[in-house]
Specification:
single chain, Ammonium transporter fold, 409 residues, mainly alpha
Length: 409
Protein backbone atom coordinates (compact mmCIF):
# COMPACT_ATOMS: atom_id res chain seq x y z
CA UNK A 1 0.00 0.00 0.00
CA UNK A 2 1.20 3.53 -0.80
CA UNK A 3 2.24 5.48 2.28
CA UNK A 4 1.14 8.99 3.17
CA UNK A 5 3.86 11.62 2.91
CA UNK A 6 3.10 14.40 5.37
CA UNK A 7 5.17 17.02 3.54
CA UNK A 8 3.18 16.33 0.38
CA UNK A 9 -0.05 16.45 2.38
CA UNK A 10 0.72 19.81 3.97
CA UNK A 11 1.68 21.26 0.58
CA UNK A 12 -1.56 20.00 -0.97
CA UNK A 13 -3.64 21.53 1.82
CA UNK A 14 -1.89 24.85 1.19
CA UNK A 15 -2.41 24.50 -2.57
CA UNK A 16 -6.08 23.70 -2.00
CA UNK A 17 -6.50 26.87 0.06
CA UNK A 18 -4.76 28.87 -2.68
CA UNK A 19 -7.13 27.51 -5.33
CA UNK A 20 -10.14 28.07 -3.09
CA UNK A 21 -9.31 31.75 -2.62
CA UNK A 22 -9.17 32.17 -6.40
CA UNK A 23 -12.97 31.97 -6.64
CA UNK A 24 -13.69 34.90 -4.27
CA UNK A 25 -10.76 36.68 -5.92
CA UNK A 26 -12.38 36.12 -9.31
CA UNK A 27 -15.49 37.75 -7.86
CA UNK A 28 -13.56 40.94 -7.19
CA UNK A 29 -11.78 40.77 -10.55
CA UNK A 30 -15.11 40.50 -12.37
CA UNK A 31 -16.88 42.81 -9.92
CA UNK A 32 -14.49 45.66 -10.63
CA UNK A 33 -15.08 45.33 -14.37
CA UNK A 34 -18.90 45.52 -14.37
CA UNK A 35 -21.13 48.55 -13.88
CA UNK A 36 -21.69 49.50 -10.26
CA UNK A 37 -25.39 48.59 -10.39
CA UNK A 38 -24.44 44.94 -10.95
CA UNK A 39 -21.38 44.44 -8.75
CA UNK A 40 -23.20 42.62 -5.95
CA UNK A 41 -24.87 40.24 -8.38
CA UNK A 42 -21.44 39.13 -9.62
CA UNK A 43 -20.18 38.62 -6.07
CA UNK A 44 -23.36 36.75 -5.18
CA UNK A 45 -23.12 34.43 -8.19
CA UNK A 46 -19.51 33.57 -7.42
CA UNK A 47 -20.05 32.78 -3.75
CA UNK A 48 -23.16 30.74 -4.53
CA UNK A 49 -21.16 28.67 -7.01
CA UNK A 50 -18.54 28.06 -4.31
CA UNK A 51 -21.28 26.78 -2.02
CA UNK A 52 -23.47 24.84 -4.47
CA UNK A 53 -20.66 23.08 -6.33
CA UNK A 54 -18.89 22.16 -3.07
CA UNK A 55 -21.98 20.22 -1.98
CA UNK A 56 -22.54 18.75 -5.45
CA UNK A 57 -18.94 17.53 -5.50
CA UNK A 58 -19.35 15.68 -2.21
CA UNK A 59 -22.71 14.15 -3.16
CA UNK A 60 -22.00 12.98 -6.72
CA UNK A 61 -19.43 15.14 -8.52
CA UNK A 62 -16.28 13.48 -7.24
CA UNK A 63 -17.67 10.04 -7.94
CA UNK A 64 -18.68 10.98 -11.49
CA UNK A 65 -15.25 12.48 -12.18
CA UNK A 66 -12.95 10.04 -10.41
CA UNK A 67 -14.98 6.97 -9.53
CA UNK A 68 -14.48 3.52 -11.09
CA UNK A 69 -16.12 3.35 -14.50
CA UNK A 70 -16.89 1.27 -17.55
CA UNK A 71 -15.46 2.35 -20.88
CA UNK A 72 -13.73 5.51 -19.68
CA UNK A 73 -16.86 7.65 -20.07
CA UNK A 74 -18.16 8.50 -16.61
CA UNK A 75 -17.59 7.33 -13.08
CA UNK A 76 -20.11 5.17 -11.28
CA UNK A 77 -21.61 6.41 -8.02
CA UNK A 78 -19.36 4.19 -5.89
CA UNK A 79 -18.02 7.30 -4.16
CA UNK A 80 -21.38 9.10 -3.87
CA UNK A 81 -21.54 11.08 -0.62
CA UNK A 82 -17.83 10.15 -0.33
CA UNK A 83 -18.71 6.57 0.52
CA UNK A 84 -15.47 4.69 1.10
CA UNK A 85 -13.37 7.82 0.65
CA UNK A 86 -11.08 8.12 3.64
CA UNK A 87 -7.52 8.85 4.63
CA UNK A 88 -5.83 6.11 2.64
CA UNK A 89 -4.13 7.40 -0.51
CA UNK A 90 -5.19 6.48 -4.02
CA UNK A 91 -2.75 4.12 -5.73
CA UNK A 92 0.28 6.05 -6.90
CA UNK A 93 -0.38 9.05 -4.64
CA UNK A 94 1.12 10.03 -1.30
CA UNK A 95 -1.74 12.14 0.08
CA UNK A 96 -5.01 11.09 1.75
CA UNK A 97 -7.82 10.63 -0.75
CA UNK A 98 -9.89 13.23 1.08
CA UNK A 99 -7.17 15.81 0.40
CA UNK A 100 -7.36 14.91 -3.29
CA UNK A 101 -11.16 15.32 -3.10
CA UNK A 102 -10.73 18.80 -1.63
CA UNK A 103 -8.15 19.90 -4.18
CA UNK A 104 -10.23 18.73 -7.12
CA UNK A 105 -13.33 20.28 -5.57
CA UNK A 106 -11.81 23.73 -5.91
CA UNK A 107 -11.20 23.11 -9.61
CA UNK A 108 -14.83 22.08 -10.04
CA UNK A 109 -15.87 25.27 -8.25
CA UNK A 110 -13.87 27.79 -10.24
CA UNK A 111 -14.74 26.41 -13.68
CA UNK A 112 -18.43 27.48 -13.78
CA UNK A 113 -17.44 30.65 -11.92
CA UNK A 114 -15.34 31.66 -14.92
CA UNK A 115 -18.41 31.52 -17.17
CA UNK A 116 -20.09 34.26 -15.13
CA UNK A 117 -18.07 36.85 -17.04
CA UNK A 118 -19.96 36.08 -20.25
CA UNK A 119 -23.51 36.63 -19.00
CA UNK A 120 -23.14 39.27 -16.30
CA UNK A 121 -25.72 42.06 -16.00
CA UNK A 122 -28.57 40.14 -17.67
CA UNK A 123 -29.08 36.67 -16.17
CA UNK A 124 -31.89 35.65 -13.83
CA UNK A 125 -30.51 34.37 -10.55
CA UNK A 126 -32.82 31.35 -10.21
CA UNK A 127 -32.03 30.17 -13.72
CA UNK A 128 -28.34 30.76 -13.09
CA UNK A 129 -28.30 28.44 -10.06
CA UNK A 130 -30.02 25.60 -11.92
CA UNK A 131 -27.80 26.09 -14.98
CA UNK A 132 -24.67 25.95 -12.82
CA UNK A 133 -25.71 22.73 -11.12
CA UNK A 134 -26.61 21.02 -14.40
CA UNK A 135 -23.51 22.28 -16.22
CA UNK A 136 -21.17 21.09 -13.49
CA UNK A 137 -22.79 17.65 -13.40
CA UNK A 138 -23.25 17.08 -17.13
CA UNK A 139 -20.30 18.95 -18.66
CA UNK A 140 -17.49 19.43 -16.16
CA UNK A 141 -17.63 16.10 -14.35
CA UNK A 142 -17.55 13.92 -17.50
CA UNK A 143 -14.73 15.96 -19.07
CA UNK A 144 -12.70 15.77 -15.86
CA UNK A 145 -13.16 12.00 -15.94
CA UNK A 146 -12.08 11.69 -19.57
CA UNK A 147 -8.87 13.65 -19.07
CA UNK A 148 -7.82 13.24 -15.43
CA UNK A 149 -9.16 9.89 -14.28
CA UNK A 150 -6.71 7.08 -14.92
CA UNK A 151 -9.63 5.25 -16.56
CA UNK A 152 -10.71 8.19 -18.75
CA UNK A 153 -10.63 7.55 -22.48
CA UNK A 154 -8.65 10.69 -23.33
CA UNK A 155 -6.20 9.93 -20.52
CA UNK A 156 -5.68 6.46 -21.96
CA UNK A 157 -4.97 8.00 -25.36
CA UNK A 158 -2.22 10.05 -23.71
CA UNK A 159 -3.79 13.53 -23.64
CA UNK A 160 -1.79 15.88 -21.41
CA UNK A 161 -3.49 18.52 -19.28
CA UNK A 162 -1.39 19.29 -16.25
CA UNK A 163 -3.75 21.63 -14.42
CA UNK A 164 -6.86 22.25 -16.50
CA UNK A 165 -6.27 24.01 -19.80
CA UNK A 166 -8.71 21.63 -21.46
CA UNK A 167 -10.90 20.56 -18.57
CA UNK A 168 -11.30 24.04 -17.11
CA UNK A 169 -10.44 26.87 -19.47
CA UNK A 170 -11.53 25.51 -22.84
CA UNK A 171 -14.75 24.17 -21.32
CA UNK A 172 -15.48 27.47 -19.58
CA UNK A 173 -14.45 29.62 -22.55
CA UNK A 174 -16.52 27.78 -25.14
CA UNK A 175 -19.50 27.53 -22.81
CA UNK A 176 -19.20 31.25 -22.15
CA UNK A 177 -19.41 31.98 -25.87
CA UNK A 178 -22.51 29.79 -26.23
CA UNK A 179 -24.16 31.50 -23.27
CA UNK A 180 -23.35 34.94 -24.65
CA UNK A 181 -24.81 34.03 -28.04
CA UNK A 182 -27.93 32.41 -26.58
CA UNK A 183 -28.66 35.20 -24.08
CA UNK A 184 -27.98 37.94 -26.60
CA UNK A 185 -26.45 41.34 -26.03
CA UNK A 186 -27.07 43.49 -23.02
CA UNK A 187 -29.75 46.07 -23.73
CA UNK A 188 -28.26 49.19 -25.26
CA UNK A 189 -24.75 47.73 -25.17
CA UNK A 190 -22.88 48.31 -28.41
CA UNK A 191 -19.26 49.07 -27.55
CA UNK A 192 -18.94 47.91 -23.96
CA UNK A 193 -18.29 50.17 -20.97
CA UNK A 194 -15.49 51.27 -18.71
CA UNK A 195 -14.89 49.25 -15.51
CA UNK A 196 -16.63 50.87 -12.57
CA UNK A 197 -13.73 50.09 -10.20
CA UNK A 198 -10.52 49.22 -12.01
CA UNK A 199 -8.37 49.12 -8.83
CA UNK A 200 -10.67 46.37 -7.51
CA UNK A 201 -10.09 44.39 -10.71
CA UNK A 202 -6.32 44.96 -10.44
CA UNK A 203 -6.34 43.64 -6.88
CA UNK A 204 -8.33 40.64 -8.07
CA UNK A 205 -5.83 39.95 -10.86
CA UNK A 206 -2.94 40.10 -8.42
CA UNK A 207 -4.50 37.56 -6.10
CA UNK A 208 -5.45 35.36 -9.06
CA UNK A 209 -1.77 35.30 -10.02
CA UNK A 210 -0.90 34.37 -6.45
CA UNK A 211 -3.55 31.66 -6.22
CA UNK A 212 -2.50 30.21 -9.57
CA UNK A 213 0.70 28.91 -7.95
CA UNK A 214 -1.48 26.52 -5.98
CA UNK A 215 -3.57 25.84 -9.06
CA UNK A 216 -0.65 24.74 -11.24
CA UNK A 217 2.09 23.65 -8.85
CA UNK A 218 -0.46 21.88 -6.68
CA UNK A 219 -1.42 19.73 -9.65
CA UNK A 220 1.85 17.84 -9.18
CA UNK A 221 0.08 16.37 -6.10
CA UNK A 222 3.40 16.23 -4.25
CA UNK A 223 6.56 18.21 -3.52
CA UNK A 224 9.31 17.58 -6.04
CA UNK A 225 11.04 18.79 -9.21
CA UNK A 226 7.81 18.87 -11.24
CA UNK A 227 6.21 21.07 -8.57
CA UNK A 228 9.07 23.55 -8.87
CA UNK A 229 8.89 23.54 -12.67
CA UNK A 230 5.16 24.22 -12.60
CA UNK A 231 5.65 27.04 -10.08
CA UNK A 232 8.40 28.68 -12.14
CA UNK A 233 6.57 28.27 -15.45
CA UNK A 234 3.40 29.78 -14.00
CA UNK A 235 5.13 33.01 -13.04
CA UNK A 236 7.19 33.11 -16.24
CA UNK A 237 4.22 32.75 -18.57
CA UNK A 238 2.17 35.35 -16.68
CA UNK A 239 5.00 37.87 -16.88
CA UNK A 240 5.60 37.23 -20.59
CA UNK A 241 1.90 37.56 -21.34
CA UNK A 242 1.55 40.81 -19.38
CA UNK A 243 4.42 42.38 -21.30
CA UNK A 244 3.10 41.11 -24.62
CA UNK A 245 -0.44 42.43 -24.08
CA UNK A 246 0.94 45.76 -22.88
CA UNK A 247 2.98 46.13 -26.08
CA UNK A 248 0.04 45.18 -28.28
CA UNK A 249 -2.19 47.59 -26.37
CA UNK A 250 0.43 50.33 -26.75
CA UNK A 251 0.62 49.78 -30.50
CA UNK A 252 -3.15 49.56 -30.94
CA UNK A 253 -4.27 52.38 -28.63
CA UNK A 254 -1.11 54.52 -28.48
CA UNK A 255 -0.96 54.08 -24.70
CA UNK A 256 -0.43 51.09 -22.40
CA UNK A 257 -3.41 50.40 -20.15
CA UNK A 258 -3.77 48.79 -16.74
CA UNK A 259 -6.76 46.81 -18.01
CA UNK A 260 -4.60 45.46 -20.81
CA UNK A 261 -1.85 44.35 -18.45
CA UNK A 262 -4.17 42.49 -16.08
CA UNK A 263 -5.99 40.87 -18.99
CA UNK A 264 -2.65 39.72 -20.36
CA UNK A 265 -1.68 38.30 -16.99
CA UNK A 266 -4.79 36.12 -16.91
CA UNK A 267 -4.31 35.04 -20.54
CA UNK A 268 -0.77 33.94 -19.77
CA UNK A 269 -1.83 32.05 -16.66
CA UNK A 270 -4.52 30.28 -18.66
CA UNK A 271 -2.16 29.38 -21.49
CA UNK A 272 0.47 27.81 -19.24
CA UNK A 273 -2.05 25.84 -17.18
CA UNK A 274 -2.09 22.67 -19.33
CA UNK A 275 1.69 22.79 -19.87
CA UNK A 276 3.00 23.98 -16.50
CA UNK A 277 4.47 20.68 -15.36
CA UNK A 278 5.66 19.49 -18.76
CA UNK A 279 7.73 22.28 -20.33
CA UNK A 280 10.92 24.29 -19.84
CA UNK A 281 10.91 27.96 -18.76
CA UNK A 282 11.79 29.26 -22.24
CA UNK A 283 8.79 27.40 -23.60
CA UNK A 284 6.69 29.05 -20.88
CA UNK A 285 7.72 32.46 -22.22
CA UNK A 286 6.60 31.48 -25.72
CA UNK A 287 3.35 29.95 -24.47
CA UNK A 288 2.51 32.98 -22.33
CA UNK A 289 3.27 35.39 -25.16
CA UNK A 290 1.24 33.37 -27.68
CA UNK A 291 -1.70 33.13 -25.28
CA UNK A 292 -1.60 36.90 -25.00
CA UNK A 293 -1.31 37.48 -28.75
CA UNK A 294 -4.20 35.24 -29.71
CA UNK A 295 -6.27 36.42 -26.77
CA UNK A 296 -5.70 40.03 -27.80
CA UNK A 297 -6.79 39.31 -31.36
CA UNK A 298 -10.03 37.69 -30.27
CA UNK A 299 -10.82 40.28 -27.60
CA UNK A 300 -10.11 43.35 -29.73
CA UNK A 301 -10.76 42.17 -33.31
CA UNK A 302 -12.84 39.02 -33.63
CA UNK A 303 -15.35 40.01 -30.95
CA UNK A 304 -16.00 43.36 -32.63
CA UNK A 305 -16.21 41.77 -36.06
CA UNK A 306 -18.85 39.21 -35.05
CA UNK A 307 -20.62 41.39 -32.49
CA UNK A 308 -21.20 38.90 -29.68
CA UNK A 309 -21.46 40.25 -26.12
CA UNK A 310 -19.03 38.10 -24.16
CA UNK A 311 -19.13 40.75 -21.48
CA UNK A 312 -15.77 40.15 -19.76
CA UNK A 313 -14.06 38.23 -22.59
CA UNK A 314 -14.19 34.77 -21.08
CA UNK A 315 -14.05 33.19 -24.53
CA UNK A 316 -11.19 35.36 -25.75
CA UNK A 317 -9.07 35.01 -22.63
CA UNK A 318 -9.91 31.57 -21.27
CA UNK A 319 -11.18 29.70 -24.31
CA UNK A 320 -8.60 30.90 -26.83
CA UNK A 321 -5.61 31.00 -24.48
CA UNK A 322 -6.65 27.58 -23.19
CA UNK A 323 -6.61 26.20 -26.74
CA UNK A 324 -3.22 27.80 -27.37
CA UNK A 325 -1.82 26.24 -24.20
CA UNK A 326 -3.27 22.79 -24.86
CA UNK A 327 -1.84 22.69 -28.38
CA UNK A 328 1.49 24.15 -27.25
CA UNK A 329 1.76 21.32 -24.74
CA UNK A 330 1.85 18.98 -27.71
CA UNK A 331 4.79 20.97 -29.08
CA UNK A 332 6.94 21.75 -26.04
CA UNK A 333 6.29 18.91 -23.57
CA UNK A 334 9.42 17.01 -22.63
CA UNK A 335 10.18 14.06 -20.38
CA UNK A 336 13.27 15.96 -19.29
CA UNK A 337 10.92 18.00 -17.10
CA UNK A 338 8.32 15.37 -16.32
CA UNK A 339 9.27 11.72 -16.88
CA UNK A 340 5.64 10.80 -16.26
CA UNK A 341 4.46 12.91 -19.18
CA UNK A 342 5.39 12.64 -22.84
CA UNK A 343 7.60 14.30 -25.41
CA UNK A 344 5.96 16.76 -27.76
CA UNK A 345 6.50 17.44 -31.45
CA UNK A 346 9.65 19.48 -30.87
CA UNK A 347 11.14 16.55 -28.95
CA UNK A 348 10.51 13.96 -31.64
CA UNK A 349 6.92 12.91 -30.92
CA UNK A 350 4.47 14.39 -33.48
CA UNK A 351 1.75 12.02 -32.27
CA UNK A 352 1.44 14.02 -29.05
CA UNK A 353 0.43 17.14 -30.95
CA UNK A 354 -2.31 15.18 -32.72
CA UNK A 355 -3.56 13.81 -29.42
CA UNK A 356 -3.67 17.33 -27.99
CA UNK A 357 -5.60 18.50 -31.04
CA UNK A 358 -8.13 15.72 -30.52
CA UNK A 359 -8.56 16.64 -26.85
CA UNK A 360 -9.13 20.28 -27.81
CA UNK A 361 -11.70 19.32 -30.45
CA UNK A 362 -13.55 17.08 -28.01
CA UNK A 363 -13.64 19.81 -25.36
CA UNK A 364 -14.89 22.41 -27.85
CA UNK A 365 -17.65 20.27 -29.34
CA UNK A 366 -18.77 18.70 -26.07
CA UNK A 367 -18.97 21.99 -24.19
CA UNK A 368 -20.65 23.84 -27.06
CA UNK A 369 -23.36 21.25 -27.69
CA UNK A 370 -23.88 20.43 -24.02
CA UNK A 371 -24.11 24.07 -22.94
CA UNK A 372 -26.58 24.86 -25.73
CA UNK A 373 -28.86 22.01 -24.67
CA UNK A 374 -28.70 22.90 -20.99
CA UNK A 375 -29.37 26.56 -21.80
CA UNK A 376 -32.46 25.72 -23.84
CA UNK A 377 -33.90 23.40 -21.19
CA UNK A 378 -33.36 25.81 -18.30
CA UNK A 379 -34.59 28.76 -20.36
CA UNK A 380 -37.85 26.97 -21.17
CA UNK A 381 -38.47 25.69 -17.66
CA UNK A 382 -37.29 28.65 -15.55
CA UNK A 383 -36.08 31.42 -17.83
CA UNK A 384 -32.54 32.73 -17.93
CA UNK A 385 -32.75 36.38 -18.92
CA UNK A 386 -34.18 39.18 -16.82
CA UNK A 387 -36.62 41.60 -18.42
CA UNK A 388 -35.51 44.95 -19.83
CA UNK A 389 -36.67 46.96 -16.81
CA UNK A 390 -34.71 44.81 -14.38
CA UNK A 391 -31.66 44.99 -16.60
CA UNK A 392 -31.91 48.78 -16.77
CA UNK A 393 -32.26 49.16 -13.00
CA UNK A 394 -29.49 46.66 -12.33
CA UNK A 395 -29.40 43.14 -10.93
CA UNK A 396 -28.24 44.21 -7.47
CA UNK A 397 -31.59 45.84 -6.74
CA UNK A 398 -33.91 43.71 -8.87
CA UNK A 399 -32.51 40.26 -8.07
CA UNK A 400 -31.24 40.80 -4.52
CA UNK A 401 -32.81 44.04 -3.22
CA UNK A 402 -29.38 45.31 -2.21
CA UNK A 403 -26.96 47.94 -3.47
CA UNK A 404 -23.20 47.76 -3.61
CA UNK A 405 -22.84 51.48 -3.06
CA UNK A 406 -25.10 53.72 -0.99
CA UNK A 407 -24.81 57.49 -1.28
CA UNK A 408 -25.82 59.40 1.83
CA UNK A 409 -27.48 62.78 1.45
Amino acid sequence: MDMINYVDTVWMLIATALVMIMTPTLAFFYGGLVRKKNVLSVLMQTYVILSVVSIQWILIGYSLAFGPDLGGVIGYLNYAALTGVGMDPIKGQTIPQQVFVLFQMMFAVITPALIIGAFIERIKFSGFVVFTLLWTTLIYDPMAHWVWSSDGWLAKLGALDFAGGTVIHILAGISALIMALCLGKRTGMTTGHAPHNLPLAVLGAGFLWFGWFGFNAGSALSVGPVTVSAFLNTNTAAAAAAITWMILDWIENKVPTVLGVITGIVAGLVAITPAAGYVKPMAAIVIGACGSIFGFIFVTKIKAQFGYDDSLDVFGVHGIAGIVGALATGLFATKQINPGGANGLFYGNPKQFLIQGLAVAVAVVFSAVGTFIIFKVVDVVIGLRVDNDDEYIGLDLTQHHEAGYTLME
